[in-house]
Inverse folding.
């Protein structure tokens, strides 16, 4: 199977390393980062591209743009793993549209296009007889979307809730463990690379809210936008509040919750008993799904990381290959 | 309530029937047969919810069935919910915050733990509310949110309902 890879940061490099390390029968015929691109129908030398990137250089030729790769490379699947833009979803949205119009399948880890334009993109994919997969947009390595679309097909989901943001979970874990202030725990998260220089997107619950919108719109048949999510972040939490929860054998976690029947979509800090399966440590994610036939299921795993997110992308790629790509 | 009745077939049903007749809701029936009791009676404990003012009516119906009520333990506020508040709790008149819930008559603040750090830093409090019904609890929490919005407080709810 031939793929074009847009985005050569943490996730893109994770995918390249997995392809190199494992016999996945995947050839990369197009590759682009924000500054450069390269096209090679015979297969790009990923080891060399990783080495160039490791030296701080571009992955390809500055004269080749991501749009060129989408339009000109010969591939079966476009793998779009550039950073999320919550406002416009661009430039990823345009690239995904262009690939679907070329009758190419698309796999993405980018939340923007899926949260903002899923109905349109799905229609476009169907009209062109190809698939659009996005497992990596929600909870990294946890195959939550696949589980809900395939494994739980036929179930009615009455409630879905959990820890959708590893950065916040790390900060809250540290505040509870060592009575750190929010600022101290955030500084520590930054030092370890768990939080961005501008952590707003994570700590204000925006990242978790986007994931709820994706699940609501693509699986639970709701029609929501980011503005529909009632959202409270963790920036005002105090070590005292965590201690007051601790006194009851509880702790505080940032919980995203969807109750489809009641139209509830909310992200807020909640008091949770410490023995609850959703109380996971560090940067882990955990999601509980309440299904009518299956009962309650809880998924726990790594919500971010290069290899972990690559796992979700590769799962989607092999799903497409096994069902739809002919002659590869 | 704890009831004493004749140890005969049909007696338990006879004791339960009047409860639904007065609009009550049975939550649990605890029935332990103690072989050592010399008398030919049976002790049964029933946990139930009753609409306001229906208790005398129920007692009368039970007596008519030959069931004697040994003990009634009344617990008016059945539902409990503990939340955490963060903000300038004292400066924004904490007793007024509590009053607004107590004033409903059907829900009240039964416990409050307050931690006050340095002056001017936001304080944190754990607040326990009890109410007669689930609907009243929801109403009390709505009131708390309205107050929190006015006073710029953060409310942290439990994951599960009362």
């Amino acid at each position: 199977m031939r793929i074009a890879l847009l985005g050569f940061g943490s996730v893109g490099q994770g995918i390249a390393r997995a392809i190199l390390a494992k016999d996945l029968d995947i050839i990369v015929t197009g590759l682009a980062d924000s500054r450069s691109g390269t096209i090679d129908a015979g297969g790009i030398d990923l080891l060399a591209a990783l080495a160039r990137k490791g030296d701080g250089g571009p992955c390809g030729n500055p004269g080749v743009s991501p749009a060129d790769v989408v339009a000109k490379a010969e591939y079966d699947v476009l793998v779009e793993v550039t950073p999320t833009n919550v406002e416009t979803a661009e430039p990823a949205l345009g690239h995904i549209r262009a690939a679907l119009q070329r009758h190419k399948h698309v796999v993405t880890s980018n939340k923007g296009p899926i949260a903002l334009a899923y109905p349109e993109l799905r229609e476009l994919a169907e009209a062109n007889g190809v698939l659009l997969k996005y497992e990596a947009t929600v909870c990294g390595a946890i195959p939550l979307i696949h589980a809900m679309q395939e494994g739980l097909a036929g179930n009615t989901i009455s409630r879905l809730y959990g820890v959708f943001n590893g950065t916040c979970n790390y900060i809250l874990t540290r505040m509870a463990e060592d009575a750190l202030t929010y600022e101290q725990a955030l500084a520590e998260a930054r030092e370890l690379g768990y939080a961005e220089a501008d952590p707003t997107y994570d700590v204000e619950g925006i990242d978790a809210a986007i994931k709820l919108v994706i699940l609501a719109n693509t699986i639970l048949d709701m029609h929501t936008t980011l503005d529909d999510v009632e959202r409270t972040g963790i920036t005002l939490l105090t070590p005292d509040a965590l201690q007051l929860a601790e006194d009851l054998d509880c702790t505080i976690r940032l919980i995203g919750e969807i109750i489809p029947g009641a139209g509830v979509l909310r992200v807020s800090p909640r008091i949770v008993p410490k023995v609850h399966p959703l109380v996971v440590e560090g940067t882990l994610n955990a999601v509980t799904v309440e299904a009518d036939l299956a009962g309650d299921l809880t998924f726990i795993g790594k919500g971010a990381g290069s290899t972990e997110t690559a796992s979700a992308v590769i799962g989607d790629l092999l799903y497409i290959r096994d069902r739809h790509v002919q002659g590869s | 309530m704890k009831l004493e009745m004749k140890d005969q077939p049909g007696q338990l049903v006879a004791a339960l029937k009047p409860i639904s007749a007065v609009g009550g809701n049975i939550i649990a029936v605890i029935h332990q047969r103690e072989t050592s009791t010399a008398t030919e009676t049976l002790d049964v404990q029933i946990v139930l919810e009753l609409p306001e003012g229906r208790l005398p009516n129920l007692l009368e119906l039970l007596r008519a069935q030959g069931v004697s009520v040994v003990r009634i333990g009344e617990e008016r506020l059945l539902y409990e919910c503990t939340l955490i508040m963060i903000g300038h709790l004292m400066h924004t008149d904490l007793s007024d915050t509590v009053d607004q819930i107590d004033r409903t008559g059907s829900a009240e603040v039964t416990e409050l733990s307050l931690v006050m750090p340095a002056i001017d830093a936001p304080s944190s409090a754990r607040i326990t509310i009890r109410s007669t019904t689930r609907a009243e609890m929801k109403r009390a929490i709505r009131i708390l949110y309205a107050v929190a919005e006015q006073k710029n407080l953060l409310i942290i709810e439990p994951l599960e309902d009362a």
About this structure: Residues 134-151 of chain B form the longest helix (18 residues). Chain B touches chain A through 18 residues (CB under 8 Å). Residues 1 and 151 of chain B are 43 Å apart (CA to CA).
